[in-house]
Amino acid sequence: MGKTTLLKISLILIMIATWQSCRVSYKFNGAALDYDVYKTIYVSNFPIRAALVYPPLQQTFENELLDYITRNTRLRTVDSKSDLELTGEITGYSLSPQAVNEDAYASKTRLTISVRVKYVDTKAQGKDIDQTFSAYRDFDSSQMLTDVQDELCQQISKELVDLIFNATLGNW
To answer: Which residues of the chain have pLDDT under 50?
Structure first.
């Protein structure tokens, strides 16, 4: 064998060794949990403590949160002592006028929902969170809130759950 052939073989072997040592790891669900450490999660009820109350919101939000955790983690939900705890309350449910048209009436109304979340990691210190998350949707003021309320609450709940998951279990 000539020097050029040995050089090419050596270069190929180095590339293969380098390629095998480089490993990219992706987590498509966004969860950054070590399942050898974390196995259970407690998710409390999220009662409505807002001045304005829309009773179906609590169930809508809680279902969305539990479904999202179930779909995106391998954690088992429990009703007692657990590795992770997610508690909180719905603290805000408000309407506010937005875009004002030429006759000084609002053409859009904003529905804003706020949720206070306490996240406790019983396995590691310094990862606890006590934070309020808010999300909103605007709707045309010519529409009655009762006509769009369920759909808006569903959309806002999905966004809130995504924000909460990323701040807690997603460990972004």
So the answer is: 19-29, 172
Structure tokens at 10: 């050596």
Q: What CA–CA distances, in Å, run from 110 to 93, 99, 107, 138, 164?
A: 10, 9, 10, 4, 21
Give the integer Cα–Cα distance in Å for 92 and 105.
24
Residue 3, H or E segment: helix 3-21
Helix-strand-coil split of the chain, %, nearest 5: 35, 30, 35
Q: Judge contact between 61 and 90, C-beta under 8 A.
A: yes
**Cα 23 to chain centroid, rounded:** 27
pTM recorded for the entire structure? 0.79
Q: Give the C-alpha separation, 155 to 116, whole Å.
A: 18
* Measured distance CA(127)–CA(26) in Å, rounded: 22
